[in-house]
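In the design runs reported in the main text, the only information available to the sequence generator was the tokenized backbone. The following block is the verbatim input for one such run; it is reproduced so that readers can re-run the procedure and compare outputs position by position.
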């Protein structure tokens, strides 16, 4: 059996686990793994086996399934026990990452090595240290008082899955450092992250205050902490995110540079060939440089994949053996799946392996003329841009049209010129420091020019498309279409592959019919954001919270969810009032939809440009909308701008944070009508949703938008009790994730989706 077939067989077993809603038990996984291993051993001994390759594929798939299932079971069992959530832990351990300085805290990964109190837990935890005077150095050992909980993220369409990433990164708990005299530094160890931090600090010092220093740091030691959201946005818009981190391309270029230098030395001193053959020297040189470079890069998946491939090619080169590129890639895939079975949960895995596989498949004979070479490069980049589009849409909800040209012009310059300069500068830092500084400054100038060019590309109209997710089936068909379209010349009707790609670019829109409403209450933690869609219009009520540290749920959750829902034009943004848990994400929503009309219950507390909330009503697509201020005076919560959406079959009422003092007036305003879905006021606080209000409104459904284990205790048990006495169906974003409500013609209101329950994966709580 060839390596590509074997790798795909193991990969298929891995994918079966990753797509499952739950993991098998450990005994079942072990039995499947043992049977698969025994079949593989038996096949190596017995030659005359009918359809041997089918048996081998099944055996390797079983082996891949078992390895992945066991890794998943161990990852979930290593998480903080539920009964220990919210407790304090006095522990000793070490800082296992580069610390990231936020607005009011320092974040880092901490490896717990020893418990100093009765609470017993060891593992990798991601913690925030609020008010820390300085960031703890990488590899330093500390005694810390931690408050921890299990990893749990927000569940929304299009948003990042924090629980999945916790599995990928081996995070067993999250929390923060408690202030007190028990926190103390126990010294510093030697580790690779410490070396990375030292080199990064030295590079930053040599470059002074140059803005490009952050880009040089990213390419020198994989330190992306200085890159801000504007940098990442530019990289995503131009499809060049792989250029601001140490990617497989950069690792491969480092290996080629080492091999070229070794060959140059052997040609300069031919006598060296009498002791060590030149081919062996080149292979050793490539491995000697690429291994530490990969470690200094933080051992990211693309760099690891490239390093494994370099080592395989170097070994074959030293032994004067030829190995097909497809076999090299397949060996790297098997190695990654065996060492890190959780790697396919990360977007970088798919983009890295898919990109290289496409290059291997499209690589033709070397072109002698510069013109022919450039034409081939353009063709390959065009095919790559089209072929990777389904994956880009699936993971990021967007696709860069200018990425093809940007990569053709920028990627060779960065990889061939800038990266060698950075490597040379880093190597010279502790040897010839006076030479290192101008070399690094030259690299910084190159990155400045690169960034200027990318900014020009980003200004091209419609250079980036935000696309709605079409589900796994559409993505799979898009990948199949891309493979068909990129097949070698002679393949029949390759143009047919464009049809599934067009379906990914223009997925069928799930729009309500005239007179109907689709509403989505996004899971934004302790805050609120609700999308209301009619047949051809969309309204957003509140934009989600922003934390004091600067973390913006508008950018992280609301905008991706809007794009995934197919909202290309947002007609209105209603900000109930100015509190940060309702209006914190306003700037991000307005940046994504600059033409949106804004209404605010407290325009003075929100961004300029919002109109004050006044009593008004209108009709969109046969659906009536009523907006009015809850009260003209009183506290901020009671000045909320409330929204009532009315169809023939049901209503949706959003009172914001309005409390009991104004609920009587609201009930009179709403009046009797069809069955009502109520978004509970003030996140289920006891200060709202009174008994009298429920008797007057008689809702059939209540949606609570609250954070998991929030410190306010929302929803309050009294509110839950009142809702239950009125036989109201209760949904909570904290436990259900994003909640979808349908108000359809001739039907009572129905909760159509509960994201955490309906889109179930084994790593979710």
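Verbatim output:
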């Amino acid at each position: 059996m060839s390596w590509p077939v074997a790798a795909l067989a193991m990969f298929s077993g891995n994918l079966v686990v990753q797509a499952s809603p739950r993991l098998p038990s450990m005994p079942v996984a072990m039995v499947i793994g043992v049977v698969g291993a025994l079949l593989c051993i038996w096949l190596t001994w017995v030659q005359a086996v009918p359809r041997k390759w089918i048996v081998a594929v099944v055996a390797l798939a079983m082996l891949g399934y078992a390895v992945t299932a066991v890794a998943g079971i161990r990852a979930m069992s290593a998480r903080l026990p539920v009964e220990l959530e919210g407790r304090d832990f006095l522990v000793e351990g070490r800082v296992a990452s580069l610390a990231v300085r936020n607005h009011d805290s320092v974040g880092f990964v901490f490896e717990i090595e020893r418990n100093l109190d009765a609470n017993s837990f060891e593992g990798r935890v991601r913690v925030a240290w609020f008010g820390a005077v300085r960031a703890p150095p990488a590899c330093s050992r500390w005694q810390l008082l931690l408050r921890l909980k299990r990893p749990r993220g927000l569940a929304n369409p299009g948003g990042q899955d924090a629980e999945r990433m916790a599995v990928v990164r081996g995070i067993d708990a999250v929390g923060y450092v408690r202030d007190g005299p028990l926190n103390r530094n126990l010294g510093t160890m030697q580790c690779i992250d410490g070396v990375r931090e030292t080199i990064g600090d030295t590079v930053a010092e040599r470059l002074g205050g140059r803005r490009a220093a952050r880009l040089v740091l990213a390419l020198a030691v994989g330190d992306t902490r200085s890159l801000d959201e504007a940098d990442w946005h530019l990289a995503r818009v131009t499809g060049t995110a792989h250029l601001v981190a140490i990617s497989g391309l950069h690792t491969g270029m480092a290996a080629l540079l080492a091999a070229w230098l070794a060959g140059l030395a052997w040609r300069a001193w031919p006598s060296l060939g009498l002791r060590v053959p030149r081919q062996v020297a080149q292979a050793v040189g490539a491995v000697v440089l690429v291994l530490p470079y990969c470690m200094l890069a933080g051992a990211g998946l693309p760099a690891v994949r490239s390093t494994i491939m370099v080592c395989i090619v170097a070994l074959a080169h030293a032994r004067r053996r030829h190995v097909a590129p497809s076999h090299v890639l397949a060996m790297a895939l098997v190695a990654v799946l065996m060492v890190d079975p959780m790697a396919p949960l990360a977007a970088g895995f798919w983009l890295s392996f898919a990109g290289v596989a496409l290059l291997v498949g499209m690589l033709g004979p070397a072109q002698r003329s510069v013109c022919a070479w450039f034409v081939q490069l353009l063709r390959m980049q065009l095919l790559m841009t089209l072929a990777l589009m389904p994956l880009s849409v699936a993971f990021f909800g967007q696709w860069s049209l200018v990425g093809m040209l940007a990569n053709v012009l920028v990627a060779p310059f960065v990889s061939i010129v800038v990266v060698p300069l950075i490597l040379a500068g880093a190597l010279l830092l502790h040897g010839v420091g006076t030479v290192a500084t101008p070399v690094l400054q030259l690299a910084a100038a190159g990155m400045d020019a690169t960034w200027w060019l990318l900014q020009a590309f980003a200004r091209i109209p419609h250079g980036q498309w935000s696309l709605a997710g079409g589900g796994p089936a559409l993505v799979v068909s898009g990948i199949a279409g891309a493979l068909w379209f990129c097949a070698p010349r002679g393949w029949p009707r390759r143009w047919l592959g464009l049809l599934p790609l067009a379906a990914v670019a223009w997925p069928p829109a799930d729009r309500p019919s005239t007179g109907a409403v689709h509403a989505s209450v996004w899971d934004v933690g302790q805050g609120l954001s609700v999308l209301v869609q009619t047949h051809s219009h969309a309204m957003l009520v509140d934009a989600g919270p922003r934390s004091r540290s600067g973390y913006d749920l508008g950018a992280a959750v609301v905008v991706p969810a809007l794009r995934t829902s197919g909202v290309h034009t947002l007609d209105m943004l209603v900000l109930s009032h100015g509190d940060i848990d309702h209006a914190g994400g306003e700037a991000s929503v307005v940046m994504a939809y600059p033409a949106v009309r804004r209404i605010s219950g407290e325009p003075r507390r929100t961004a300029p440009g919002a109109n004050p909330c006044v009593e008004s009503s209108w009709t969109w697509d046969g659906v009536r909308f009523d907006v009015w201020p809850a009260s003209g005076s009183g506290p901020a919560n009671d000045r909320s701008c409330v929204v009532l959406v009315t169809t023939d079959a049901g209503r949706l009422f959003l009172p914001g944070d309005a409390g009991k003092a104004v609920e009587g007036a609201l009930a009179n305003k709403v009046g009797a009508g069809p069955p009502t879905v109520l978004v509970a006021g003030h996140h289920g606080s006891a200060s709202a949703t009174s008994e009298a209000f429920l008797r007057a409104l008689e809702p059939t459904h209540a949606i609570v938008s609250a954070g998991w284990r929030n410190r306010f205790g929302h929803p309050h048990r009294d509110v839950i009790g009142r809702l239950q006495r009125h036989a109201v169906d209760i949904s909570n974003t904290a436990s259900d994730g994003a909640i979808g409500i349908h108000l359809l013609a001739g039907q009572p209101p129905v909760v159509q989706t509960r994201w955490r329950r309906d889109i179930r994966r084994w790593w979710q709580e």
